[in-house]
Structure formats: structure tokens, C-alpha cells
């Protein structure tokens, strides 16, 4: 069973910019049973739109709750009623028999109902009389029940596919003394209940035939309803107000027991819950941009953007490429089918480059600035200049089907990167299907709005590179790639540490901290700018006096960073000052007359110490040859509990597989090309 909300307004249609998100059409709910039977409940203006989605022939069943205009006006504009290849069974409450004819007789519609081209079979619906739909025992069974509404009304209860659907039509749950208990009865055990919640208790109008949503929430909780859907919105309830209601409902839900949703046109439900499962209001983009503003680091920004783009398109996988020096450079990827979140990190440092040219799908989007929405990459339209590169599929066994590729733009209007979303999964079947126009629209909104944030995060990184480049004039070995590697290893160490420390980690918090540590760790040796070249570049061993000067780079770094007012200034100062402290307390420099030990050393500095020494060991230095990874890890193991926090040495072991990828991604470069 699948339920689709086609019209969610009461009283009168109100399509307007202020109702665009939840929808302006009046009452109509579509139910598709697994048996293939197609049912509609009420025929408000939403029915017209539902009709447009139907094939050229077929059979359907429309159940009318009562004769008020907002529940029947869509009937005359329903495609099947105008097609001889369609049969429509129309179930009218017994007291409404004359209504369709009255439309012609009263001059409301120019053609008599019976002269419309479609085949219409009229039935009478009576409270308590079960209507079997379709043939055989598999078909849905619809049971009308009396509701409380001026001039009477019927609600409908549908059993199909081992699930129970309830539609109340217009119903005042507080309308007669027994109505509340009756409601708990007809809602009992409903998987999906779509109910009239035109009012809240604040604006409830007694006797008008509608209910306050709070009453439904209480009744549904008693009746073990799984999905409560509040509909028949007042035409003046604008999107902002319904968003606010939706936010309040989250707190009233019973996780795993009862979902509560504000009805939105186009929303779909299966007995287990809404499709898609993501909860979002008209302000989803605003909320996302607010969240995104917390992140500075390019990796974090790209990760969040990719996650949101996938969420709104149900994409199984996705990749972001950034334009660098005329090439598309792989920047970030997610793939739910191929690697779990735990494994994804291995790909965070993969190195892939491809030309900005029209011959690939990504290259085409980057070269032209056009979005490409491809239903199946294996049957591209004839004559397109691009082709699908299946080398990734071939090497991994993954099967790419649908693909949505969108460009990002910089403030000059030039393409700065692309996001490629792969395989939109139908939440019901889990099978890839094409990206819908609605998904493409939302994803385009998203890429437009986040382009500036991406540019900012790249600038932030570039400004850190600028500082490092100035330091590089002084000491070319300690530049971009070294800083990148120490930053990357420190960030990954932090993530492992945090996941060990907190069995149920707050992933957003970890992501946020991880990226502050990444940037701050890049600046750990910035104080070396204050050390004389004679010492810094001395080919051999330092004398005791020279080393004493050298140790000053920690305090110099901290004082340089004290001038900084950025988000990472505090943590960067800690790292600069403490990154040569040792777990056993025998490090440097003296802070307030002593050298801290153990957890008195800030975590960020303990992390950077491991990342920095590892990198110093495996890199060439003017005073030493590079060591192998194993030799360097051996030293870390030997120094666990002495120089290093033993937990962090364990974390480093866990990163063993990832280290080569980080070192491949940020190789030492020649002086001329250093620091980008
Ligand atoms: P760096 O080159 O970035 O090294 C950072 C840290 O890595 C060092 O901190 C040390 O803990 C570790 N490390 C580096 N190379 C080796 C090694 O060959 N063996 C071992 N066991 N550990 C190593 P440390 O010692 O406090 O040095 C701080 C900075 O002082 C170094 O930064 C480097 O710039 C400079 N430095 C240290 N020793 C020498 C030296 O003998 N000659 C010169 N020219 N500079 C040195
Ligand atoms: C979101 O979930 O934030 C985006 C809305 C959508 O699914 O289209
Ligand atoms: C969908 O989530 O099914 C399409 C996106 C939308 O609702 O706009
Ligand atoms: Fe240092
Ligand atoms: Fe260093």
C-alpha cells in the first residue's frame, strides 16, 4: 500500500507563493494497493493533478466524504472522466445522489455528468457497509463510518496489503460527546491515518465541523497509530506556520511508534512511514545554510554539501570535483553501497584528476556550466559529445545507472567545481531510478546557494597557505604538503580518538572539531619563521645552544597566533605552544614554570605531536634521511606512554591503511610549485 497526498487544503484552494511548499490544492488522497487497485478519497482540486499522472486507460475508485465544494470540485477536471478507456467507480454518501447532476442543472458546469466520455459507475456508500474493491480476496476492503460534520459526512477505513489506512474526511472530533471515544475506535491500529486538523486549540471553532490537531495527537497515541498525517489546512495557514507546526510535532512523536506529519502535497507514505524518510520544511535550505555556516574547513564544507545533496535526491553515491589549474580534481566522495561510513575515509584522500572537456559527463558540466540529468548512463541520447566512463564500475563492481551532475560557480560566474550524484534509490524498492525534476530543482537550488561557502572555505585554506608560504621563504621543507599531511593525519587521529572515547558519538560535533584541528595543526610550526636560517637550515646536529633557540619556535608561534581572531586561533595557539610537550612531562617549553604531562597537555597538541613526529621521520630533512612508515611507526610504539599519548598511538595504528593515501595525495613538491 502506498498513499499519496494530492490536496491538503480545506475550504478553498489557495495556490500562492505563501502556500507553495505545502500546496494549495483541496482535499484528495490517493491510495495504490499492491493488488493494483487505485483508490481516491475525496475529489478536491488535488484530484485533477492526480489525474494528470495516470496512464491512458484503467479503472479507479473515488470515495467522497461529503458534498462540500472543496471535496468534489476536482471531479469534473479529472482526466479519467473524459476518456472512454477509463472506468471510474464513484462512491457517494447516500444523501448526495443528486450532486453531480446538480452541477449541470445549476449551471456550474456546462456538460451533464452522464455525458462525459469516461465510464462512470455510481455507488452509494453507507456507514458500516463494507465495499470490496476489485475482485478476489486480495483487493482492498473499504468501510465507511459516520463522522461529525455539518450536514453529515463519512470517513473511510481501508484494509489492504495487511495494513490499515484511515481517512476521516472533515470531522469534528469534539463534535458530540461520544466522538472522541469513537475516534479512538476507528483509528485503532491504523498504519496511516489522514485526519482533518484544520485548527489548533488556539483557533478552534466549535461547531464548524473540524478538529484541533492536538486532539488527534492524543487520540492517535491512545489508538497506536503508526503514521498520523494532519491535513485539511486552513487556506490562510501559510508555509511558515505549517513549518512551525511541523517542528513542534517532532517533539510529540514517539520514536519507533508514532510519526506525526503535517500533510504536504506530493508526500508519500507506506505503512512503515513517509517516503522519503527525510523530514523537511519549506525552510530546509535555510536550515542547512545555517548549519553549514559553522564549518570553515573545505573538507567539512564539501562533506556536508555532498551529504545534503544526496539526502534530497536519495542518491546512493556522490562525488565532488573542484576545478584546479584547468583540471577537475577529485575532492570528496560518498558511496553507501560500496563502503560504509567507516570505510569512506579511505577514499577521502584518493587522487583522481580529469580534464575539463566535453568528452566526459563531469567534464561537460564543468566546461559548459550546464546541469546534466541522465536517466541511464548506459543509454545516452544519440549525438551527445560525452560518454560514460565505466572504469570505476568495472574495477569495483558497482553499477551506475542514473546520474545528476551539477556545476558550482565562483563569484566571477566561472565553474569552480561539480557535484555528481549517482543512483537515486526508490525508498520503497531500493532500486535506482531517474532523478525527478523536483530533485533536480532542489539540488540546483542547493548548489547555487552553497557556491559562496565553498569559495570562502577555499579562500580560508588559501590564506593559511599564504601564511605557510611566507614561512616557506624561510624554510622550504616545512611548507604546503608537510602542513597538509600533518593536518590530515591530525584530523583523522582526532576522529579515531573521539569515536573511541564516545561509543555513541555526536557526528556533527566530531566533524566540526576534526576540521578545526586540521586547519590549526597545519600551523603548528609557524613559529619557525622567527628562527635564524643558520640554525634552521644547519645540515648537521644542533649544539645545545642552537637547540635552545630552536625550542623557542613554540612560543614564537603561539605569540604570532595570539594576534589572529579567527575561529581556530585558540586551538592553533595551543598546538603551536604545546606540540613538543611529551606525555611523560619531559617536553618543552616551560609554561608557567613547568612542562605539563598526560592529559594536562591539550588533546589537539598531543594529536599534533604524533602527526608531526611521524611526518618529520618519514620526510627528508636537511639534518636526516627519510625513514620508512614501519620504522616511524616502530618509534611511535616505542614512545607510547613516554613521548606520546598511548591511545593516540593506537589510533595511529588504526590509520595504517590510510597513511599511504594521505602521503600520495600531498606529495613533497619542488620549491617553485610549493604551497600551490
Ligand atoms: P622537525 O624537523 O619538524 O621535527 C619535529 C620532531 O620530530 C622533532 O622535534 C623530533 O621529536 C622528531 N624527529 C625529527 N627527526 C627525528 C629523528 O631523526 N629521530 C628522532 N627520534 N626524532 C626525530 P624536536 O627534536 O623537538 O625538534 C624540533 C625541530 O628542531 C625540528 O622540527 C627541526 O626543525 C629542528 N631540529 C631538531 N634536531 C635538529 C638537528 O639535528 N639539526 C637541525 N638542523 N635541526 C634540528
Ligand atoms: C531535505 O531533506 O532537506 C531536502 C528535501 C527533499 O527531500 O527534497
Ligand atoms: C522527492 O523527494 O520525491 C522529490 C523531491 C520533492 O519532493 O521536491
Ligand atoms: Fe615544532
Ligand atoms: Fe613540523
Describe the structure.
Helix content is 36%, strand content 18%. It is an alpha+beta fold. It folds into 3 domains: 2-271, Ribonuclease Z/Hydroxyacylglutathione hydrolase-like (Metallo-beta-lactamase, Chain A); 284-452, GAF domain (Beta-Lactamase), CATH 3.30.450.40; 475-673, Hypothetical protein af1432. The strands form 3 sheets. Strands 6-5-4-3-2-1-14-15 form an 8-stranded mixed β-sheet. A hairpin with a 5-residue loop joins β20 and β21 (415-425). α12 packs antiparallel against α13. It is elongated. The model is unreliable at 670-676 (pLDDT under 50). The structure holds ligand C2E, succinic acid (2 copies) and fe (iii) ion (2 copies). One succinic acid is lined by residues 266, 276, 436, 438-439, 442.
- Can you list the ligands bound to this structure? ligand C2E, succinic acid, fe (iii) ion
Number of domains: 3
Radius of gyration: 32 Å
At the fourth level of CATH, the homologous superfamily of the largest domain is Ribonuclease Z/Hydroxyacylglutathione hydrolase-like
